[in-house]
């Protein structure tokens, strides 16, 4: 997973980015919140890994800029095959 974080049109390199992973039909004990690492380019954050099973999954991205401390969230759903 990779997130490109911007404020307006400027890359934001001072933020905490967490990817929350929810497999469809899973309970609260079966989801994960994983801290993304800064990527190669400014404003880029990455998380690498593999999925063990095919299923529909929802990702929620939590972005907290260090200068404001105000979290923004975005989510999307996809099918792992």
General description of the model:
The chain has 81 residues and is mainly β. The chain has one domain: Immunoglobulin-like, CATH 2.60.40. The protein is built from no helices and 9 strands. The strands form 3 sheets. A 4-stranded antiparallel beta sheet has the order 5-4-8-9, with no helix packed on it. Strands 1-7-6 form a 3-stranded antiparallel beta sheet, with no helix packed on it. The chain starts with a strand and ends with a strand.
Please specify the SSE layout and strand pairing.
Blueprint: E1 2-4, E2 6-7, E3 10-11, E4 15-23, E5 32-35, E6 37-38, E7 44-46, E8 55-65, E9 72-80
Antiparallel strand pairs: 1-7, 2-3, 4-5, 4-8, 6-7, 8-9
Protein name: YtkA-like domain-containing protein
List segments where confidence is low: pLDDT < 50 over at least 5 consecutive residues. Answer: none
Distance between the termini: 16 Å
> Largest beta sheet: what is the strand line-up?
5-4-8-9
Query: What's the total count of β strands?
Result: 9
Strand content: over 45%
What structural category characterises the helix and strand content? mainly beta
Which architecture would the CATH scheme give at its second level? Sandwich
Q: What's the CATH topology label? A: Immunoglobulin-like
Instruction: Sum up the overall morphology in one term.
Output: elongated
Q: Number of domains in the coordinates?
A: 1
Fraction of residues in helix: under 10%
Please count the helical segments: 0
Q: Under the CATH scheme, which class?
A: Mainly Beta
What is the arithmetic mean of pLDDT?
A: 88
**Helix and strand sequence:** EEEEEEEEE
Biggest sheet details: 4 strands, antiparallel
* Cα Rg: 13 Å
């Amino acid at each position: 997973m990779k997130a490109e974080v911007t404020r307006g049109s400027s890359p934001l390199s001072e933020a905490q980015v967490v990817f929350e992973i929810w497999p469809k039909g899973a309970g609260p004990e079966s989801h994960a919140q994983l801290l993304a690492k800064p990527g190669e380019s400014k404003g880029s954050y990455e998380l690498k890994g593999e999925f063990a099973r095919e299923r529909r999954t929802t990702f929620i991205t939590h972005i907290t800029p260090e200068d404001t401390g105000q979290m923004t969230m975005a989510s999307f759903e996809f099918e792992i095959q």
